[in-house]
Design brief:
Layout lengths: L2 E5 L2 H8 L5 E5 L14 E3 L2 E4 L2 E4 L3 E5 L4 E3 L8 E5 L2 E11 L2 E4 L2 E4 L4 E6 L2 H4 L18 E3 L15 E6 L12 E11 L5 H6 L6 E2 L15 E2 L1 H13 L10 E9 L2
Parallel strand pairs: 1-8
Antiparallel strand pairs: 2-18, 3-6, 4-5, 6-7, 8-15, 9-12, 9-13, 9-14, 10-11, 15-18, 16-17
Length: 261
């Protein structure tokens, strides 16, 4: 079983926690010029060239056509996705750092000091290989707050010694991830193939009424209300419109999962 990181925004984090979201979709990169029919999504062995000779490469779970293959960003059924999200971590001021430089092999002090900071949990995780020590005496997660569900930490009175710093999801360490998702199914499809049931599984809310604003989204008939799939189209374009707009009907990876933690 492989563990793979995945990023979600706060709204999707809350939908997953409430068991309202059990699917996700991401664009294929690069986009295929064509796909086989039926579309395979399975283990396959690519051919690689080494030393001028063709030989079998490492098995990959994904899809392929006659020109190339694509590795699934979600892994294979049975793998785990650990969810990275925006977070705060507590910092603490440590001893000053005196920067300098080497000149002709001699280290020269630059003549000033810099206040060096580190996360409050640094001493518990600064072990060989970056792993967490097995004999932690403190609860390391006391120094983490999750932006999607936790209130913003209060600003301490002595901000010169200890404070909270907001960090983007891409920097969340694996040990701080509170949610793990078991991959149940992975497939490839066009984004406009999403059904109403799939849109519900994506965490999209009930249909919305717009009596005087008929839709003009590609792939939908003109009508004066918005089904869940249309709402998903808006969500998709809010994230991917620049490179993979809904109107282009790009190929996507789709994944069905269940919450493990």
């Amino acid at each position: 079983m492989t563990e793979i990181p995945i990023l979600f925004n706060g709204e999707m984090i809350r939908a997953i926690a409430d068991r309202l979201k059990t699917q996700t979709r991401r664009p294929m990169k690069p986009q295929p010029e064509y796909m086989l029919d039926p579309i395979p999504c399975e283990w396959y062995t690519p051919t690689i060239i080494r030393g001028g000779e063709e030989m079998p490469g490492k098995d990959i779970y994904g899809t392929y056509n006659d020109d190339r293959g694509w590795k699934s960003p979600f892994g294979a059924p049975g793998d785990l996705l650990y969810v990275r999200e925006n977070f705060w971590h507590e910092n603490i001021l440590v001893e000053p750092y005196y920067p300098g430089h080497y000149e002709d092999g001699e280290y020269i002090d630059d003549g000033y000091s810099v206040e060096r900071v580190q996360p409050e949990w640094y001493e518990y995780t600064n072990t060989p290989g970056g792993m967490i020590a097995d004999d932690l005496s403190a609860n390391i997660l006391d120094h983490i707050r999750y932006c999607a569900t936790d209130p913003e930490p209060e600003r301490p009175e002595n901000v010169n010694q200890r404070w909270w710093e907001k960090r983007p999801s891409i920097h969340m360490p694996e040990w701080a991830c509170r949610t793990r998702l078991l991959v149940k199914r992975v497939w490839v499809e066009r984004v406009q193939s999403i059904s109403e049931a799939d849109a519900i599984a994506e965490g999209i809310g009930p249909p919305q009424d717009y009596p005087h604003v008929p839709t003009d989204l590609p792939g939908f008939e003109t009508r004066c209300y918005r089904e869940r799939a249309e709402q998903f189209a808006d969500l998709w374009d809010s994230i991917y419109a620049a490179k993979y707009p809904w109107a282009d009907n790009p190929w996507v990876w789709a994944c069905e999962f269940e919450v493990k933690t």
